[in-house]
Amino acid sequence: xxxxxxxxxxxxxxxxxxxxxxxxEHRNIQEEPAEFVMNSNDLEAEFYANPKASEQKxxxxxxxxxxNLTDQNKLDLTLNNKVFCQFDSQLDSLKSxxxxxxxxxxxxxxxxxxxxxxxxxxxxxxx
Length: 127
Fold this sequence. Notes:
The protein is of the alpha/beta class. The protein has helices at 2-22, 40-49, 51-58; strands spanning 36-39, 62-72, 76-79, 83-87, 98-109, 114-126. The chain has a single domain (36-126), classed as CATH 2.40.50.140. It is built from 3 helices and 6 strands, in the order αβααβββββ. A 5-stranded mixed beta barrel has the order 2-3-4-6-5. The N and C termini lie far apart (75 Å). The mean pLDDT is 89. This is tRNA_anti-like.
């Protein structure tokens, strides 16, 4: 009888752990503080010097990058032709060329020579 209770308790604990693992709370990237704050030229220089080490350093981290707007579409923009920022919702037209964007670094595209971020949010627009 004692063994049945132990098996039942173990099954309940295991079930609870599996449930919490599968249904854990998702990250709210836009509300998390940035781990790294820099301008796009410094970030580009770091990737130019050592792309693999830089990618490992920033992968899945929240970074805040300031730079000049060089391209804008409905769901993305590019800073200084090097930092590609993807947004979760449609962008309004921006009033400034100097923009600070926060998002999660997802990788470096060496083919297109782009630093890629997703779940981005515009922090400031300087005139």
